[in-house]
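Worked Example 4.2. Consider the chain below.
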Amino acid sequence: MLPLMLMPGWLSLFLLTLPQAFCALAATLNVSQDFHQFRGSTRTSKPPTTTTMTSGGRQFFFADVNTKINAKVGAKPELPCLVYGIDLTNVVISWWKAGEYQELSLGLETRQHRYYLPRKFYEDWTLVIDNVQETDSGFYACQINADSLLEKIFLLNVTYHNGGQCTL
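Applying the procedure from the previous section yields the following structure tokens:
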């Protein structure tokens, strides 16, 4: 059985299912509503635009990235979770999908072959979904499991597109 700190709390799952609650959570955590795509960093640098959160007196940084991802069936969307200021010996980073009660990833280990974490650099915990399907649409959370649970929420919208071809 996983330690309690590695499991999402009922509040976390509840928030994942109610989009209106995200605004309240964001306001509480002073999360920026201005999303910017961030690329590249050094291990010790803080990105130019970040969301700062604290847990147990320590600061963690989520880079402000696009949290609304659109993809077509069969594509390989990336949900960019970039975290800064984290000593990975003391925390676990995981991915969850709303409505599912198992992690998609726990650390570097993924639960299904279609999900993976390419880890392009130290702070990169981007989730990639291979051969995405319409059933993959929904809310996803990148979680930092430290003294308290910190998360960044993403909305993935997968649509079917036939490429504009008409068959008679």
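The chain has a mean pLDDT of 69. The chain has two helices and twelve strands. Compare this with Example 4.1 before moving on.
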